[in-house]
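Cross-posting from the modeling subforum.

Setting up a comparison between two proteins and wanted a second pair of eyes on the formatting. Protein 1 (sequence, then structure tokens):
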Amino acid sequence: MTPDEYCQDKAARSGSSFYYAFLFLPPERRRAITALYAFCREVDDVVDETSEASVARMKLVWWREQLDALFQGEPPIHPVLKALLPHIQTYDLRYQELLAIIDGMEMDLDQARYQSWDDLKKYCWHVASVVGILSAKIFGQTQAQTTDYAVQLGLAFQMTNIIRDVGDDARRGRIYLPLDELDRFEVRPQEILNGQYSDRFVALMRHQSERAHQYYQQAAQSLPEVDRRAQRPGLLMAAIYHTLLLEIDRDQWDVLDKRISLTPIRKFWLAWKNWVTNGGSFLKSVRS
């Protein structure tokens, strides 16, 4: 299996909405974004699939060392880094940006609670917005303002993930909702950990959803028209994630004991519709 095939397999097996955006890209950009996604999956799996925190830290140290070696000109060992190497200079993929993703994954080893939105936003930037920044460059960014779009969209994506996964995260002892906002809505952390649904919980989640919608709107407003066509893959993902958030809203944030999702056929339909309209369907839905 070649490095590119390894990354393709990693992306396909993930079942992520991101995979649908890759399908429409030209071959070189598709290989680059697939390698970047596979890198993110590898370091994320270190935390998710390693039961001992000390072992996970050692593995993340190894990834940092491999990243250092890669940018110092040493031949990469891991197939993901081998696949990523040809695209680093082409798309200006920077060491500090890739390192920030690893730092974000390590944050999950250090804390399972966030006191405020500012604290949680920092985490979201590391695990999502930086990925958006790198992706925008691979897709063909030409305007500096497109970076702002990528940052806002990353925050919207991560908040959608957090809202969808409240129950799953709680079963792992994690709460990715700001604790000061739990206090404001009079929801005790133990209620979430125990899966207790209430009107107070609904109000708390409505507030989180409003925040996510706001970031989708800000992303749409930040995208320069000249870069809209190039950034279609991000707009495809935005259409899928935004539709998912709307479904969660309609279900009144019933996320404590089930995981709301879209079917693969619906994801593909949303992706295709937004590809042929240069993201018009998504942009219309958030700007109206």
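Protein 2 (same layout):
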Amino acid sequence: MSSETDHSKTALRRSLRLRQALLPADYLRTASDAMQDKVLALLTYRAAKSIFLYIHMPHEPATDRILAQALADGKAVFVPRCVSRTEMLAVRIRDLSGMKPGAFGIPEPEDVTETAAAADLDLILVPCLAAAPDGRRLGHGAGYYDRFLSAQGGADRAVCLCFRRMLCGDIPTDAYDIRIPHIITE
């Protein structure tokens, strides 16, 4: 990553985190519900046999209803587990038991006996701090999803959930950033 792009992203993250912190709780809830409804209505979701989704943190678009519905629908559900400062695995869960706080305090599965490569997943939900309508995404800065999708394929089945109020047309990118083909807002 170029130093200029790195500095631009750092400054933008700082500004967007301030904007994000000011989003009202009722907006977060209503917008998250609308995004989850859209995902559950996707033909891609309905046809998917396997789905990878993030466990949302406060101020991120929620995924709890999608996770519950995917389990109820009998889909193979995978969630992230960070195994190093640079690597994330897609680990299968059958329910929410056996989860414990992992990297960044995000709940992760303890049991990692069943994993999947991104290329083998039918639908991949990706979090962001902000996104541009053309698929540029600004994550939280660790690069896990870019590396996961780049190394293992699957970017063509990725969907990014982004609050409309966090859309940003001016997101700097470099050669390592993966564009997400589908951005869903409320």
